[in-house]
Structures are given as C-alpha cells and as structure tokens.
Amino acid sequence: MNNDNAIHLGIIPDGNRRWAKSRSLNPWKGHEQAIENFKALTEWCRNDERISVLTVWCFSTENWKRERQEIEMLMKMLEDYLRKEQENFIENKTKFCHSGRKDRIPSSLAELIKEAEEKTSDQTDFTLHLAVDYGGKDEIERAARKISPESPLKENLDHPELPDIDIIIRTSGEKRTSNFFMWQAAYAEWIFEDKLFPDFSIDDLQVAVDNFSDRNRRFGE
C-alpha cells in the first residue's frame, strides 16, 4: 500500500477468558470465539484503505503462567489458523509476519510461522503482524544483545521495517499498556474499550478508526 498516511493499528484482544467464564465455558472457548472475531476484524482492516498494518497480540511472554491445557489449545488454534489462511494471505496480497520468540512455542507452530512469512514476503498491499510469545521488554533485550555501532537498536528489533504503531485498542476495560511494543508504541494513541474482545464488533472498530483519523497528532510539538 503506497499511502504515507496509512495507519498501523494495534489490538490487544483482552477478555477472552472472562467471556468464556461468564458463559460457564472452558477458557479456550473464549479464544475460539476470539479467533473468529479476529478474522472478521482483519478482513475489515484489509479492505479499509486507511490501514496498512494490523498488529495483534496473541500470546505474551507472561502468558506461559496460565494452565497448560489452555496454552496447548491456544497454540493449536494458532496452528490451525495459519494452516488454513496461508493461501488466503497470497490471494488477498497480505504480508504475514511474526514478532516474539520462536524457541519456546511448539516447533510445528514455529515452522508454520516461518513458512507463512516466506510465502508472503513479497506482498505489499496489507501486513498482518502477529505477536506470539512476545513482550516489549524481551524484544528490546534481544535487540540490545545484537547491537553494534553499525547496527543501532532499532535495526535489531523483530521487524524494523514496519512503521511505528499509530493507534492501539485494548479491550475488556483494562487500562494499562502491559509491555506491548514499547519502542514502536512511543507515540501511539490509546483507546481502552470496555467490551470483551469476542464482543468487540466491526462497528466498534470503525468508530475507533474514524475518531483517530480526525485527531491532530503533535508528536511532542
């Protein structure tokens, strides 16, 4: 997408487990519903000319503290999603990329991530950026270990080619940044939405993007 004013949108899809608990369901049922909602929101973003990059936090470096069965189910859901969507990425001219560690997630998921990144590397219309086993501090620490005078820190982040994040939406009423892309979100506008992510609709997203588009950003000036 050749649009200098295009938006890099970040979403922290919070509240999936609470959504399931309120319905007396297992936690992963909330994640299942969240993935279906994520697909619909991604499709809307892909078709909105204002948005060039969508970053979604799927699993944090702290989420390993959760119950093993929930983690295993979520990893399997991510695998199923990537396995089914790869051809759609190409058909819809979508570049896929991943931020986070690959050494702790299942090797089968890591391989699917690598495969999707390689197959879509030349796509330019839209970028879907998933953060899996990701933490902002962890990314900066990993980048710092690779830093040199010829290679500044920013160039050692997971995806230095991506523009900084413009707007971040966090669902479920939580009002904290939680280690989300600390470097890239330095000047991001934050929206804290009360709805749980499975209930966060395309209409809600459109309102947020419309409101952001009307803002006058000063970047500290």
Word description of this protein:
The model has no long low-confidence stretch (mean pLDDT 95). The longest helix has 24 residues, at 68-91. The two termini are 28 Å apart. α4 links the parallel β3 (94-99) and β4. The chain has a single domain (7-135, 165-212), classed as 3-Layer(aba) Sandwich (Undecaprenyl pyrophosphate synthetase). A 6-stranded parallel β-sheet has the order 3-4-2-1-5-6, sandwiched between helices. It has 6 helices and 6 strands. It is 39% helix and 18% strand. The radius of gyration is 17 Å and the shape is globular. It is of the alpha/beta class.
Question: What's the quick description here?
Answer:
This protein has a single domain (7-135, 165-212), classed as Decaprenyl diphosphate synthase-like (Undecaprenyl pyrophosphate synthetase, 3-Layer(aba) Sandwich), CATH 3.40.1180.10. Helices cover 39% and strands 18% of the residues. The protein has six helices and six strands; from the N terminus they run βααβαβαβαββα.
Structural class: alpha/beta
CATH architecture title? 3-Layer(aba) Sandwich
Task: Output mean pLDDT.
Answer: 95
> Low-confidence parts, pLDDT < 50 over ≥5 residues?
none
- Please report which band the strand proportion falls in: under 5%, 5-15%, 15-25%, 25-35%, 35-45% or over 45%: 15-25%
Radius of gyration: 17 Å
Strand order in space, largest sheet: 3-4-2-1-5-6
How many strand units?
Answer: 6
CATH top-level class: Alpha Beta
Superfamily (CATH H level) name: Decaprenyl diphosphate synthase-like
Number of domains: 1
The CATH topology is given as: Undecaprenyl pyrophosphate synthetase
Question: How far is the first residue's CA from the last residue's CA?
Answer: 28 Å
Number of helices: 6
The quaternary structure here is single chain
H/E order of the elements?
A: EHHEHEHEHEEH
Tell me about the biggest sheet?
A: 6 strands, parallel
Query: Which term fits the overall shape?
Result: globular
Helix content: 25-40%
